[in-house]
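Pipeline run #58 for the internal structure catalog. This entry was flagged by the ingest filter as a single-chain record with no existing model, so it goes straight to prediction. Upstream metadata was stripped on purpose; only the residue string is passed forward. Reviewer on rotation: M.T. Logging verbosity set to normal.
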Amino acid sequence: MTNRKKPKFKIGDTVVITIYGTVGKITDVKYLDQMHVYEVNKSEGLYLESSLQMLSEYDGEIMDSEKIDIEYRFFIGDLVKVKGYGSNLFKIMGFRTEIWRYKSDAWEDVIYELSRVSDGEWLEAGEDELTLVADADSADSFIQKLGLLYIMDKKQKSIDLKKSSSSFHQTEKELLERTKEKKELIDGLLDIYNDYRILYSLFKDAEYEQVMKLTLRKLKLLSNKSDKDNGTKNLE
């Protein structure tokens, strides 16, 4: 077993990357091909010992370091609309900042990585293309309410099937179960209607208005069926 040479730098040392004249801290030390290489400021690149020098020993010119404060408008888990994609909803899965520096200009771009709720399609978009629909804390609840609208027909059909397969003289327990199911449907529809009413007032999107109208029609249908059922019961 050969004796391995000790690394010149250790984690935490403040060094200068001599080819750039920039200052950083050693964040990892690796041993590759019988030589030590160093990670600086958790960057993806690795540096040889020959390209680094302790700051206290460096006599060259130090490039001015720049502190950048970026205020992010959206965060992972937020539910957003994307310009050009209508009322499609996307969930933010990640984001990155691209820093651009030129001799006569400088700017930063925040790029968000998104997944479409309906089918998982991946999309990248800039901050100016996004509109917040629900923050991360309430996004899942909003999506569940949205999905509830599309299962209403199945649940209502299930209720109607139970009704058609039973006799007119139902037991009190069966009547209570049907009443409970209808109440859950109505409560869910009311939640959906209120959410989309707020969205429509904010964005004036015709698709949101259509969801409101569809929800009202379903509520009316449920209400009419309840009145009919009550009438039938009274006749008995």
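catalog note: The chain is about 40% helix and 30% strand.
catalog note: Residues 169 and 236 are 8 Å apart (CA to CA).
status: ready for reviewer M.T.
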